[in-house]
Amino acid sequence: MVKFSLTRTSVGQEISPEVAFFSSRGPSSISPTVLKPDIAAPGVNILASWSPASPIISSDTAHNLPPLNFKIETGTSMACPHITAIVTLLKAIHPTWSPAAIKSALITTASLEDKYGLSAVAEGAPHKQADPFDYGGGQVNPNKAINPDLIYDIKTEDYTRFLCAMGYNHTAISWMAGAFTPCRKKGNFLANFNLPSISIPELKKSITVSRTVTNVGPVASLYAARVEAPPGTA
């Protein structure tokens, strides 16, 4: 049974945002030049609607429980609907934006701290300060994603070149693209794939990478770039 009542304020110890132990971690073993995960969203103890047609099996009684309309669940499958809903709203507000533009808006406006300024931590053995391999761009911030000012857009042909650089042949790429698509390899394309992140595996010497941003903010906007080098790099 669930009882709903008026809200009340409970003052206690502030807790940092936490990446659950079951949340997927990076880097990607298949394409390490693509930072994974992309984004973090709420996925623990989520109260959500539940189809009454879906059977609920109790591990304690091994019997089916009565149909439910709502259920509290935990998992990455609960974080996914949050992102899906936000993407749907962004597409309604910006109908001309590509999937890459929407993804860029989510990632570049995500939060690394909560409203109290506390940094995210990651569950594990032991707990540690969370990093991009735990949360990607950070925790999604729907309101900020509406106006990201700059986006990293990607065209269809860029995806085909990415697959080509990954080692897929033109037959496999054409099958996925639905049309004949010749494979033209381009040097260092993986590192220069226009993502809103930069991931360089096995960095042993200096390397130059490029990104192209598109202004979706006010026309007369002026932006300044600032680089914060990760520890161990210059």
UniProtKB/TrEMBL annotation:
Pfam families: fn3_6 (PF17766), Peptidase_S8 (PF00082)
Peptidase S8/S53 domain mapped to chain residues: 16-114
GO biological process: proteolysis
Annotated Subtilisin-like protease fibronectin type-III domain residues: 192-233
InterPro entries: Peptidase_S8/S53_dom, Peptidase_S8/S53_dom_sf, Peptidase_S8_Ser-AS, SBT, Subtilisin-like_FN3
Keyword Hydrolase among record annotations: yes
Record flagged with keyword NADP: no
Keywords, ordered alphabetically: Hydrolase, Protease, Serine protease, Signal
UniProt cross-references to Gene3D superfamilies, sorted A to Z: 2.60.40.2310, Peptidase S8/S53 domain
GO MF term set: serine-type endopeptidase activity
Family assignment from sequence similarity: Belongs to the peptidase S8 family.
The name this protein goes by in its record: Peptidase S8/S53 domain-containing protein
Biological source species: Escallonia herrerae
